[in-house]
Write a structure and sequence with these properties.
Distance between the termini: 43 Å
Number of domains: 1
Strand order of the largest sheet: 1-2
Order of helices and strands: HHEHHHHHHHHHHE
């Protein structure tokens, strides 16, 4: 009986370690398992991981190069359009939105760099399952594992761009133009919300670009002309 207790504890510790390792993308992994079945690969983890790393690297490079954020102001600001037109400031909201878009656009390279530093989040023991999973299983797992930390690291950078993008200045001009109609606007709160909006657009856009890239690579790995990617994505057998 005494020997069973340590064995039981060892089993629990082992299970906890496995759960922690996979917990960073547990939902995505579970979804991939349903699609993967009893998949296997003739390649080892090192070769598979090389292909997956190359996929994410080239996908992130493409997102950084091609993704152009487009933002849209929330309704609690656009409702002032008519009042601003009467005040002779019909383009004020458009210019404010341009500031938000500028912050989102400037954040893209930084977000890409941050994500490149997180490529080790995909665990080798899960790689066959994720490769054999759904069309976006790799990106889904990566997104689940990295979103929270990406947002935390990207936020200070996005906030630093506010003055250069003239976000606070343009909002202040809008409030002044509105007069009494804008007296209840909390400018600090609105700036924070607009920075969050810009960041969300950046983050969602990059992950979306990765998802689209994964679908294309799965459909035609040879089109990448990348040997590591081709080997990894064509090695899975179900």
């Amino acid at each position: 009986m005494k020997r069973l207790i340590p064995l039981y504890l060892a089993a629990l510790l082992s299970l906890a370690a496995t759960t922690h390792a996979q917990g960073v993308y547990a939902k995505a992994l579970q979804a991939a398992k349903k699609a993967a079945g009893t998949a296997s690969s003739g390649l080892g983890q090192v070769e598979l991981m090389e292909g997956v790393t190359q996929f994410f690297t080239t996908g992130l490079d493409a997102a950084g190069r091609d993704f152009a954020p487009k933002t849209k102001l929330p309704g609690d600001l656009t409702k002032f359009q008519k009042a601003l037109e009467k005040a002779g400031q019909k383009d004020a909201l458009k210019q404010l939105n341009d500031s938000v878009t500028q912050i989102a656009d400037a954040s893209v390279p930084r977000a890409v760099a941050i994500l490149k530093g997180m490529l080790n989040e995909i665990k080798g023991e899960d790689i066959v399952t994720l490769l054999a999973g759904k069309n976006t299983s790799l990106t889904d797992a990566f997104r689940e594992a990295t979103t929270e930390r990406l947002n935390a690291q990207l936020k200070p950078f996005a906030e630093q761009i506010v003055p250069a993008a003239k976000l606070d200045k343009r909002l202040s001009q809008i409030v002044s133009a509105l007069g009494d109609a804008g007296k209840d606007i909390d400018q600090k709160e609105i700036v924070e919300k607009l920075v969050e909006l810009a960041q969300k657009q950046t983050v969602n856009g990059i992950y979306g670009a990765l998802s689209s890239s994964e679908v294309k690579v799965r459909a035609d790995p040879d089109a990448t002309k990348n040997k590591a990617i081709i080997k990894a994505f064509t090695s899975i057998k179900k």
